From TrEMBL:
Gene Ontology CC annotations of this record: membrane
Record InterPro entries: COX15/CtaA_fam, COX15/CtaA_HemeA_synthase
Iron listed as a keyword: yes
Subcellular location: Membrane
A GO BP annotation: heme A biosynthetic process
Membrane topology: Multi-pass membrane protein
Keywords: Cell membrane, Disulfide bond, Heme biosynthesis, Iron, Membrane, Metal-binding, Oxidoreductase, Transmembrane, Transmembrane helix
Molecular function terms from GO: metal ion binding; oxidoreductase activity
Organism: Nonlabens agnitus
Pathway annotation: Porphyrin-containing compound metabolism
Top-rank taxon, per record: Bacteria
Protein name per Swiss-Prot or TrEMBL: Heme A synthase
Length: 344
């Protein structure tokens, strides 16, 4: 079990599951399901959430456990202790939920958020197993062990941030931080994976191309940061007008939106030049670069749909997820370039 090959497998699986978490989070955000579970880590006080609103109504002659939740007069009530109800509701057995005042049950939103949390828990377990496997390197390559444990700790931090996001009624700033931490975890796992890959995966170049690749990563991060600002504006519009989303909101949107939209053309041209040089001048294999080009076209196309077609065809989560895939692939290509410099 404790082999380098198995460690690589679990790193790959970890990266895959983190991207699944990003996808699930994007779906939660697109559908407005973030408060589908108004408490954390449980959901309405249950480890497996209710499927009908009737389950959250007061029930006479019923056993309740401490921490279980009901909705009374459009407010959450939490059981103070284990008890058995009488025929009538008694305020003394319950206390108000004080983190926020959201008390709406929607089966679709609840189970969408619950599945998101399950995938997050799965991600934590997968990274935990990778950390256990990394112990084989603690004497020979301690950096691998230390950084894998750091990735595990980052997953725990993500869980804490997720709790705070719920407690603050989906603070847009915290949601953005949540996303950034996920991208940092992906980058760290990709770095660890590259460190244990065979040396034949390196890309020949004269050093300048690796610097260009790093510059592209930085510019893409700037683009993503601008995109998060646009997303926060959309969240504000949702608070004002509710769902469904409307592209009309962007017509008089913040200036950052128009910069974000125009900057995508700059990034597309820069990537086209970079891919051309890598493949024609240095004869790099086409696979990674072809995938990168396809992802760029998908994210720009989804941005066009967002802008002109009222966020249809799941364009919003696609835009977000593909952008995160682009960053991961860019980082992987840069890792292959930076460690294989040769003289021109």
């Amino acid at each position: 079990m404790f082999t380098e090959k198995n460690y690589r497998r679990w790193l790959r699986l970890s990266i895959l599951v983190i991207y699944l978490i990003i996808i699930a989070g994007a779906v939660v955000r697109m559908t407005g399901s973030g408060m589908g579970c108004p408490d954390w880590p449980k959901c309405f006080g249950y480890w497996i959430p209710p499927t009908e609103e009737a389950e959250l109504e007061f029930s006479p002659n019923t056993s309740y456990k401490k921490g279980m939740v009901i909705i009374v007069d459009e407010e959450l009530r939490v059981a103070r202790q284990d008890f058995f109800t009488t025929d009538s509701y008694s305020e003394s057995n319950w206390e108000p939920y004080t983190k926020h005042d959201y008390a709406v049950f929607n089966k679709f939103h609840t189970w969408t958020e619950y599945i998101n949390r399950l995938i997050g828990a799965l991600g934590g377990l997968v990274v935990l197993f990778a950390a256990i496997l990394s112990l084989q390197f603690i004497r020979t390559r301690p950096k691998l062990t230390v950084l894998t444990v750091v990735a595990l700790l980052a997953m725990l931090i993500q869980a804490v941030i997720g709790k705070i996001v719920v407690d603050t009624l989906l603070s847009p700033v915290l949601i953005t931080i949540h996303m950034i931490v996920a991208l940092l975890i992906v980058g760290l796992l990709i770095y660890l994976l590259y460190e244990v890959l065979p040396a034949t995966t390196k890309y020949r170049n004269d050093g300048r191309l690796s610097k260009v690749a790093l510059g592209i990563i930085i510019l893409t991060l700037v683009q993503v940061a601008m995109g998060t600002q646009v997303r926060q504006f959309i969240d504000h519009q949702v608070d004002l007008f509710g769902y469904p989303l409307s592209s009309e909101w962007l017509e008089n949107g913040p200036i950052i939106f128009f910069i974000h939209r125009s900057f995508s053309i700059v990034l597309l041209l820069l990537h086209a030049w970079f891919i051309f040089v890598a493949m024609k001048t240095w004869n790099h294999p086409a696979r990674s670069y072809s995938i990168l080009a396809a992802l760029l076209l998908i994210t720009i196309s989804s941005g066009v749909i967002i802008n002109y077609f009222d966020f249809t065809l799941a364009s919003q989560p696609i835009h977000l997820v593909v952008a995160s895939l682009i960053l991961g692939l860019q980082f992987y290509i840069w890792m292959r370039l930076r460690s294989a410099r040769i003289k021109a």
